[in-house]
Design brief:
With 87 residues, the chain is mainly α. The protein is built from four helices and no strands.
Length: 87
């Protein structure tokens, strides 16, 4: 396998895996799952924070599948930075 093909595969894996993780958790954020409500209540951001983070992750997850994947990666950093700065 040549290095160009390897680079393409690695790039797609690094885009698809985080996008799928973010998109998978949206159901819990938008439906008000008990765990999500508990987490956002503990940090004082329920319900608006749950919807804001969910929307941000939705936008980032979709952008990671497009040619705007760089912007999607930057947007994806927001929930991560917020998550770790609140602990």
């Amino acid at each position: 396998m040549n290095s160009s093909k390897s680079k393409t595969i690695i790039t797609w894996v690094l885009r698809v895996v985080p996008a799928l993780i973010m998109l998978q958790t949206l159901y819990f954020k938008f439906t008000g799952a008990e765990e999500s409500v508990y987490i956002f209540t503990q940090i004082g951001m329920e319900p608006w924070g749950r919807y804001l983070v969910g929307t941000t992750e939705l936008i980032a997850g979709v952008l990671l599948f497009t040619r705007w994947y760089g912007l999607g990666a930057i947007i994806a950093l927001e929930p991560w930075l917020g998550r770790y700065s609140s602990t």
